Amino acid sequence: MAITSKFRKNSTHPLQRLLNYARRYRQQIWQATSFSIINTILDIAPPWLIGTAVDILVKQQDSIIGKLGIKNIVSQFLLLSFITVIIWIFESLSQYVYDRIWRNLAQNIQHALRLDTYNHVQELDSAYFEESSTGNLMSILNDDINQLEDFLNFGANDIIQISTSIIILTIGAFWILPPFITVAVLLPMPFIVWGSFAYQKRLETRYADVREKAGFLNARLANNLSGINTIKSFTAEEYENARLADESEAYRKSNSKAIKLSAAFIPLIRMLILVGFTALLFWGGMATYAGTISIGSYSVLLVLVQRLLWPLVNLGEIFDKYQRSMASANRVMNLLDAPINIIRGDIPLHITEVRGEIDFKQVTFAYYNREPVIKKLSLHIPSGKTIAIVGSTGSGKSTLVKLLLRFYDISSGTITVDGIDIQKLNLHDLRRSIGLVSQDVFLFHGTVAENIAYGTFDANDEQIIKAAKIAEAHDFIMRLPESYETIVGERGQKLSGGQRQRIAIARAVLKNPPILVLDEATSAVDNETEAAIQRSLEKITANRTTIAIAHRLSTIRNADRIYVMEYGELVESGTHEELLERNGIYANLWRVQSGVRSRSQNL
């Protein structure tokens, strides 16, 4: 099954994958890069200005500016001061521009990457989520994408500026210094670059492990917060504290390994830089004393080398940011590369024209790495009729609904709606034509009205209230503190199970789909509420194809036809009365639930 592709690793470097993704922003990238280079060139100018000032004092009329025809010392310093002001202004402006572009670029890429990744996640099939941790997905969508911001804000600019500085230093040194001094000054450079890449390679695996441990930690936190009431009811606080401590300790140790390696980088680079600076200080001084180079040029190089070589110390921090970001980028891109196995069809299904005739033809389905739960099942559901499916837990009832909605795709056979294979139908149109009321009701944090109108976002207050009345929800809603404007809390935790279920039914009523699926829709309501919902179901199911899945047989006894499932197969079918007369599985279930004893039991 295609789910195994989720674990495939892309061999392309994460930076290349990130750059490929960011192609839409290449104009911004080029602009930011250009201003970073311009700013670096202007930032290197002060050492030259200092050297020129020394040159004026030493050579006076024969200085560099004096050779341009300006012999007066005051005029030379005035011109030098004017050039200084111009350079300083443009340096400040270029820094403002590149800083603004880089930071906006980081925000734009972050925003687009988060939305694209989330949209991609929404397209993945249910099997993917069964194999993935919600906390880990949250870690990728939030923490890992945020991790890119720091590098895009500053790290990329730092790399460009240091690279530009190295090029300028190399050209300047060869132009001014004798070859043997130039070689001595630049000798550490290859070792610094090689060392940086060697460290980068070793840090890569360590930060990948850090991000993985962060995902596990987030998964534990998300899982525990979701199940906080279970933890409390079983007095498992100490147990969960211990489990969280294990995950946090693993994250701490993983970070410590990365820190141990990254912290050693700067001291080693300092030692290499010391070699180049000391070589210039001594051999350059000797060359100046011998008259090989001027005092001004020597002054420029001393300041220039200090300003250009010492920032290489920052390579440690830059590569640290880089590796953290690349580890995060790799996780984000792997999620983006997760294959979408549910392929959208291209045949439109207009909701106003849907009759709701459904056919399962020789359908077989198995969850990943498990035995088939549906086995060559064939089922015809006539348009506008109400059919019920009952059976023991694990018989495959709810799986049929998931297959109809294409949460999963079947292994073999076909499922059709109005004679059209659902795999060829537009997926959005198919799901819009089906209203699902699940036994696992999910309400979003928001008002009661917002949750009823979810999926029918243009509904007005009158339509919302009408749907609530049909679902027998209006009365309890009006007793809430702010009636329809009451906040239900995360997952609807401020409401009872029965209240949540009635809101879910109202949501399906408002959607007004041609096909209605009730998957244990009354499992969490009391007998009084169940009776009220039963009355409303007569209105809800009128002129609508309805599939009702139930354990409580009293809720489906009036269905046009009832099917009994066992081990993925339909073993009985008929009306309520017909199935009782057959005295099979359904009749036994009915006796158990209704308390009626069979004749043999009475004897």
UniProtKB/TrEMBL annotation:
The ABC transporter domain covers: 358-592
Report the locations given in the UniProt record.
Cell membrane
What is the protein's name according to its record?
ABC transporter ATP-binding protein
**Membrane topology according to the record:** Multi-pass membrane protein
Which SUPFAM superfamilies does the record match to this protein?
ABC transporter transmembrane region (SSF90123), P-loop containing nucleoside triphosphate hydrolases (SSF52540)
Q: Where are the transmembrane segments?
A: 77-98, 166-194, 261-283
> Which residue ranges does the record assign to the ABC transmembrane type-1 domain?
30-324
| Cross-referenced InterPro entries | AAA+_ATPase, ABC1_TM_dom, ABC1_TM_sf, ABC_transporter-like_ATP-bd, ABC_transporter-like_CS, P-loop_NTPase, Type_1_exporter
Q: Pfam families under this entry?
A: ABC_membrane, ABC_tran
Name any GO cellular component annotation. Answer: plasma membrane
Top-level taxon of origin: Bacteria
Q: What are the alphabetically sorted keywords of the record?
A: ATP-binding, Membrane, Nucleotide-binding, Transmembrane, Transmembrane helix, Transport
Q: Name one GO molecular function term.
A: ABC-type oligopeptide transporter activity
